[in-house]
Amino acid sequence: MLRLITLTSALALSTAAALAQNIAVGVSPGEHAEIMEEVAKVAEPMGLTIEVVEFSDYVIPNTALADGDIQANSFQHRPYLENQIKDRGFDLVEIGTTITTPMGVYSDKLENIADLPEGARIGIPNDPTNGGRALLILQDLGLIALAEGTGLVPTPLDITENPKNLEFLELDAAQLPRSLADTDASVINTNYALAAGLDPNTDTIAMEKADSPYVNIIVVRKGDENQDWARKLVEAYRSPAVKAFIEEKYDGSVLTSW
């Protein structure tokens, strides 16, 4: 059967093709990847095709974005981006907030954080922002004290009180779930915990406070923040459909910012 294409329909097809947009968005494994797959479904009818690109660490997604290999990323919180810009000179900007994933303390050996023995080995992320975040959680739990003025990026060198003589093992964040056999406890980001089959609601022995400043964000190269595809990406992410997916899928272990 022949399809008759009139001048009007040809113009409509041409316009639709011109409006169609394709972008690649970098994410980390776990909830960031799973949520972005749902975002892609919402974005498709809006004329935006999203290729979801997973990265196994926290450094490469910003490098790939800065180099133009991807158009956006969605894996990091604001303090981490600020630290990356300071250290690496990236010309990147935030275009919208997404989710908060409270960090948890996990253990294969203990049922309660109060049971940490003298000289316990604690695994924490080895990047400055998430490592500092882990130490702040341990301070909130009363296990250590940190020097004043360290802000959101303290290091083990900033510990001023350590009554249990805890030993800190700094590892790549993605490796921390596998460190549980070698540590008494590890402070693990939710995305890596979920990817390893850990349940933040039932497997943690302590959790980060709900008023954490570590809300996650969507990031693009400076100059792209006003692009139509950037607006559609944020709109699709913050849609009712994606919010419902997050609330049903993660049952409170991942919180939306809208």
UniProtKB/TrEMBL annotation:
InterPro entries per the UniProt record, alphabetical: Lipoprotein_NlpA
Annotated keywords: Lipoprotein, Membrane, Palmitate, Signal
Gene3D superfamilies from the UniProt entry: Periplasmic binding protein-like II
Location of this chain's protein in the cell: Membrane
Chain segments annotated as transmembrane: none
Signal peptide: 1-20
Bilayer topology annotation: Lipid-anchor
Family per similarity comment: Belongs to the NlpA lipoprotein family.
UniProt cross-references to NCBIfam families, sorted A to Z: MetQ/NlpA family lipoprotein
UniProt-recorded name of the protein: MetQ/NlpA family ABC transporter substrate-binding protein
Species of the source: Paracoccus angustae
Organism phylogeny: Bacteria, Pseudomonadati, Pseudomonadota, Alphaproteobacteria, Rhodobacterales
